[in-house]
Every structure is written in C-alpha cells, then in structure tokens.
C-alpha cells in the first residue's frame, strides 16, 4: 500500500492533540502514535504504520502488541502481518469503560483510608483559589444540601455545568433554593436552568455590575451550616485576577453565625 498522506499543518496539529490526549490514558508515545497512524490508515502493515507514525519500525510490533492487549487493535496473521484499528467510537467507548472501572474501584477503596477516630476541628475555616476550584466547591456544598441553599453570585465565570446541575438537582430533591444576583443575564440564565429555584435581584454586596476589582464574587450558605464566600483577587501578573474563597462546613465557625441572618435577609428580600 502506498502512503498517500501528505503533510498538512492542520492535520499535524490534530494528530499531536490526539496523541497527547491518548497518552493521558496510559498509552506510551509510540503506542499513541501507532494507534493514530492506524486510525488514519484504517489498516496497514508495520512498514506503513511506521511511515505514517514516524515511529521506528523496530518499535511497531511491541506497540501493536500493547494496543491489541488494550482491545484497540486487531491483528491479521498474514505475511506480512497486518493491523487494523477499532473505530474511533469503539476506542472512545473502551477507554471510557476503563476509566469508569478505575474510578469505581477508587470510590470503593479510597474511603477505607479515612480514620474514623479523627474528626475535624470545630469551626475550621479553609481557603482556596482558582475559578474552577471555587465553582467545584460550590457544587459540592450544594450537592450535600438537605433543606436550603442561599446563593448570591455576581460573575458568570463561577457558574460551571457541575454547579448548575447541582442546583437543579437540589430543587428536584425538594431543597429550597434561593438565588440572588445583581446581573440580569445571570438571573435569566439561572431561572432558565433552575426553573424551580427562586431567583431574585440583590445588590447587598455590590455597588455596580460588572463588579469592581476586589469585590465579592459569590456567597453561598447551605442548610444554615456550610458557607463559602469568594472574591475577586489580584495576582502578581499585571491584569490577571483570580477567585479566592474561604469556606467551612462547620456550623460552629463564627463566620457562619455572622453571615446566616445577613444572607437570608439579603437574598430572600432581594435587597
């Protein structure tokens, strides 16, 4: 078979991206390159794969053996041997099942490492930073809600899919979800995504929108116990800012007692 694949900048970039992604699934660089080359060829000999993948021919066979063990490649015992990749959809499904199996196993064994004799200190307050981390922590707090979620937010950047889903799931469980925001686009988005929530306008923590540098970006209280407050914060890089937050899941933390009446009044009244 003659290799008719000609160099193309766009294709080369796509190949690099796929190879890099496959390596996160515990494929070696050669294995990933061989699988990508074989996907492009659909089937081929070791020489053809070597030419397309730019992998030494001496490494093709051990790479193919590893890919066959993973179920990603079939082998025809002809002379010369020929190799065929599973379809892209099959490959994605197989890797997804592998990941799910590992995560299920981790979910089973990881809790066993916890010490039942050790409890967290009363009233502990934690800090964190990063837009994704703050959004994920908000989602985790909402997921644990039993009765009530009071949530004020002034920036759409924190409204990740996991948080939106957690808010919607909470209302489905019968949790009373009240959301306040100074921004009409945020309120409209949340009202559409979480139709059973009570979405109101509130300006308690903000003087204008878009918010000023250093302003509070979100406040969330769950069941009157867990609390998270995030703010816009400058970094050492000019013009670059990030979200920083303090949070606690302990009702004994003094900040919870201080914030509970303010948050409830500010959001529920829309003031």
From TrEMBL:
Coiled coil: none annotated. It comes from Haloplanus aerogenes. This is Sugar-specific transcriptional regulator TrmB. InterPro entries: TrmB-like, Tscrpt_reg_TrmB_N, WH-like_DNA-bd_sf, WH_DNA-bd_sf. It comes from the Archaea. Residues 22-88 form the Transcription regulator TrmB N-terminal domain. Pfam families: TrmB.
């Amino acid at each position: 078979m003659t290799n008719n694949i000609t160099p193309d900048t766009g294709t080369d970039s796509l190949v690099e991206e796929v190879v890099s992604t496959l390596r996160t699934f515990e494929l070696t660089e050669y294995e990933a390159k061989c699988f990508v080359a074989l996907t492009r060829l659909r089937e081929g000999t070791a020489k053809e794969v070597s030419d397309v993948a730019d992998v030494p021919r001496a490494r093709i066979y051990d790479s193919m053996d590893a890919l066959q063990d993973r179920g990603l490649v079939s082998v025809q015992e002809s002379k010369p041997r020929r190799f065929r990749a599973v379809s892209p959809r099959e490959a994605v499904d197989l890797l997804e099942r592998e990941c799910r199996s590992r995560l299920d196993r981790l979910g089973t064994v990881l809790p066993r490492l916890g010490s039942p004799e050790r409890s967290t200190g009363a009233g502990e307050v934690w800090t964190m930073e990063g837009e994704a981390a703050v959004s994920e922590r908000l989602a985790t707090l909402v997921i644990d809600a039993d009765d009530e979620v009071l949530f004020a937010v002034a920036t759409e950047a924190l409204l990740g899919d996991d948080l939106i889903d957690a808010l919607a799931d909470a209302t489905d469980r019968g949790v009373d979800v009240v959301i306040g925001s100074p921004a009409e686009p945020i309120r409209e988005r949340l009202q559409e995504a979480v139709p059973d929530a009570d979405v109101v306008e509130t300006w308690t923590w903000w003087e204008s929108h878009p918010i000023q540098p250093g302003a509070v970006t979100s406040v969330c209280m769950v069941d009157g116990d867990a609390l998270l407050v995030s703010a816009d914060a400058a970094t050492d890089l000019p013009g670059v800012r990030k979200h920083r937050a303090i949070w606690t899941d302990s009702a004994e933390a003094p900040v919870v007692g201080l914030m509970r009446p303010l948050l409830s009044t500010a959001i529920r009244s829309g003031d």
